[in-house]
Every structure is written in structure tokens, then in C-alpha cells.
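quick one before i forget lol
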Amino acid sequence: MAISAAAQGDPWAALRVFEGKWEGPVTGKPGKQFSSREYKFELNGKFLSQKDKSVYEPKSPGAQPEVREDVRLFQLRHEFEEDRVEAIPQ
């Protein structure tokens, strides 16, 4: 994602709207679930972290719910006179 020149004072400006925790029910092909996602700036704003957690309803009575968790880090890269946000490979 390229960051506009207008945001040069704060290269993360376009993404700050996502900062915080987002959660709620989700339905889809895998089934019903409750998902949460949190975006937080880390290490003095050098990285943006994304933490996801989804809890799926059990497929059968007596079964445990399936839980999936994921963490990603994003960094700013300065290339070709513009800033780019890139996911760090896992």
C-alpha cells in the first residue's frame, strides 16, 4: 500500500483509522464464529501489529469450539520516494 505525500508528517496516517480492537459475530462458509482483530503500533511506531482470533461454533454436540489465532507485523519501506506498508513474511 502506497502512502500519499500528504501524510509525510505521519507515514502511518492513512492506517491510523484501524488502530484499536474490532470484534463481532461472523457467518460464512466455515460456519458461525466470533472474531476479534486488534491493530496496535509497536516499538515507537516502527511496526503495526495485527492480532486475529476466531472462535468457531462446535460442529457437533459435545465438541470443543475451534480456535484460530494469527499475528502479523507490518513495516514501512521507503522506496522510490514513497512509503509502502509491507507485511513481514512469516
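fyi The chain has one domain: 20-87.
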